[in-house]
Amino acid sequence: MNNQLKVLGFKAGTGVIYEINATAKLLFFLLISISSMITYDTRYLAFVAIFSLILFRFSKIPFASVKRVAQFAALFALLNLLFVFIFDAGYGVRLYGSQTMLVGPLSSEELFYLFNLVLKYLCTIPLALLFILTTNPSQFASSLNKIGLPYRSSYSVSLALRYIPDMQEKFIAIRNAQEARGMDLSKKVNLFLRIKLNVQLLLPLIFSSLEQIDSISTAMELRRFGKKKKRSWYSYQPLQAKDYFVIFIAILGVLTVIALFFVNQGRFFNPFR
Asked: Domain extents for the chain?
């Protein structure tokens, strides 16, 4: 396998983050991410961004395993910031009600607004990676079922999380096979040509995936999956004190955003007043 291509998915590990209940981690990720998307208070966003990076560091997940995702996220964020600035370079000026020009059409207000957008990425991406890489799909599905989600939907989520690394492994296998046949997919090739070739490799992967999905569905139907209203879970993990604490921290984050809404008289923190 190409060492540069790492499979992104759950890998068993040790530590507090791995031991936290999957439902608690999901609620924490959703509540903190939603609150970070809603608010534009730089103080809150900076705190959450730093806290997310510390959590990721504390999990001891090798950066090499998420390097490709980080590069793609950085590229997407850069393009987003560029397009935001190109299409409306004066949005920050109208938003904060003042104008302090720096270089060309770039103002301090617009730069501050773009900085907030960067913080939003730093708030959500590390948490999303933490959730994917430290959450056992079976435990997650059982936890969702225990809090009221139908077990059919819970099992679908579990299959989706399990299928992420499987899809990556198949893509890497197809890519390596094509490289062995002489297809150059290295950095020596033009970027757009490399993207085109990789897209072409996805076609056989999509067809094989559809065939596998059909096989799994048939096998589950033969075992009468979904015929009864309830089912048992061998991997169920009950909520413990540390899990309730994580949920409490997430709720506290939401309450903080609500309080900041009244303090700032809106979603935006304005240091230019």
From this structure: 1-134+241-273, 137-234
